[in-house]
Amino acid sequence: MSALDTEVLRSVLTPQLDGDALRAMLHSRLQYISPEAREQFAVGAVENVKHTLEKYGIPELPALPEAEDARMQRHLKEMRENGITLLGPVLKQGQIKEVHDYLDTRKLYGSHVWTFSDKTAKAKAEIKEKFGQGCYILEDLLGAPHLLETMSSPFVLKLVEQYLGCVPTIFQSNLMWSFQKRKSKPTVAQAFHRDWDNFRFCVLFVYMTDVDKNTGPHQYIRNTHTVEGVKHAVDRYRAQGGNESWAKTDTFYREAKLNDDQIQKLFKDELLQIEQPAGYAFLADAFGLHRGVPLVEGERLLFWTRYGLYDNGFSVDVSPAPLPNDKFKNRIQYEKTNRYILHSLLQSEFSLEKPHTSIHPSQAEFDKHADEMISFFGRQRFIKRAAKILFPGFNKPPQTY
Ligand SMILES: O=C(O)CCC(=O)C(=O)O
Ligand SMILES: [Fe+2]
Questions:
Q1: Range of 28-32, 246-250, 319-323 with top mean pLDDT
Q2: What pLDDT band is residue 294 in, cutting at 50, 70 and 90?
Q3: How close is the Cα of 281 to the center of ligand 1, in Å?
Q4: Which residue, 13, 27, 10, is CA-closest to 388?
Q5: Measuring from each residue's beta carbon to the nearest atom of ligand 1, which residues come in under 6 Å?
Q6: 173 forms bridges with which residues in the sheet?
Q7: Fewer CB in 10 Å around end: N or C, the chain?
Q8: Is 10's pLDDT higher than 50?
């Protein structure tokens, strides 16, 4: 049997949250299902994650003090209504300088995330010359002051937990430079798009340089993070006599097929453009349409951390494996819940035993391996068995889109 087959067997037969093959199957399912099915799936997935956490004795995050809780509730409401909330400054200018002083001693990789680079560290000047984007490897991100503390602040974690419906798993964190657009290839994430990272997830973004209209402001289309929200926008557009072909709902569901100018015009009342100084943070459900506007001048450093329902394997984009925790554990509260939350970045009892694989089989590839299992279990039983582990009560494979 191939390694993948062994993994399939192990994770299907062993009800564990993080089985590689189960995770890969879920990822491939996620890429093929409709947004409606994605929302439905999320409900069952949250229930199952909660059940699993209970089994592992991982408690919910502690409640915030009263005033903090009131502020958190306001942000939570905005997240639910708009898919984005502006958190304001989370790092002071002195702290920003300390981060940059540290990063000046580190080298960069020539892509938006480490795994898509040639994996050879280079000086910033060289990256800037040759690539539109650059990034640091996870070890240097976590080695920098203040960033680990920011992504795991009790306020942010509680807000994220409430938004997702269960204790989150941080599945990726990154520091990405964007440079003024050169003649070379267009850079990643500068056209409106949805991220399909997980059945439910959100992203903490922090500007690490001052961002104005010319230096790559983030744009987010409010209320495009839910199926309902997009339906409303499309209905309203139709009511205004909008062009039918534009108003096709699926145009806005899988990918933004319109060009960026059309989207900006269509959603002009919902368009949020964030021009703020370094240290400013916002939390976004990145299933909603968003992008970083291409830079007209200068350079911009963006820090992001992605929170989801389980370890979906995306941490391999920023590091070959979770890092030993000894250098980091004294910087933050590192009790059981936080060890779980950080388990894809820092080694703990919840981390996968072997390094992650960045290979998420496509539906076809997965099915090929799954086919070999079918003679064993029968197809429906195989899918059902796997689905039951994450989604009790779920007894039909999702409709493909
Ligand atoms: O650069 C930006 O503002 C957008 C980045 C992005 O799309 C993402 O991290 O999901
Ligand atoms: Fe994105």
A1: 319-323
A2: very high
A3: 13
A4: 13
A5: 189, 195, 203, 218, 286, 290-292, 302, 304
A6: 305
A7: N
A8: no
Most informative mutation of 291, 293, 299, 305 for ligand 1 (most atoms within 8 A of CB): 291
**116: which DSSP letter?**
G
Domain residue spans of the chain: 3-59+362-390, 66-224+270-341
Task: For residue 303, give the 3-state DSSP assignment.
Answer: strand
Q: Which pair of tokens denotes residue 298?
A: 């200068």
pLDDT at residue 7 greater than cutoff 70: no
Length of the chain counted residue by residue: 401
Separation of 285 CA from ligand 2 center, angstroms? 10
271 CB-near residues (< 8 Å, 6+ apart): 219, 220, 221, 222, 264
Distance 95 CA to ligand 2 centre (A): 26
Place of tokens 């990256």: 127
CATH code for the structural domain at 66-224+270-341: 2.60.120.620
- Band of the pLDDT at 114, cuts 50, 70, 90? very high
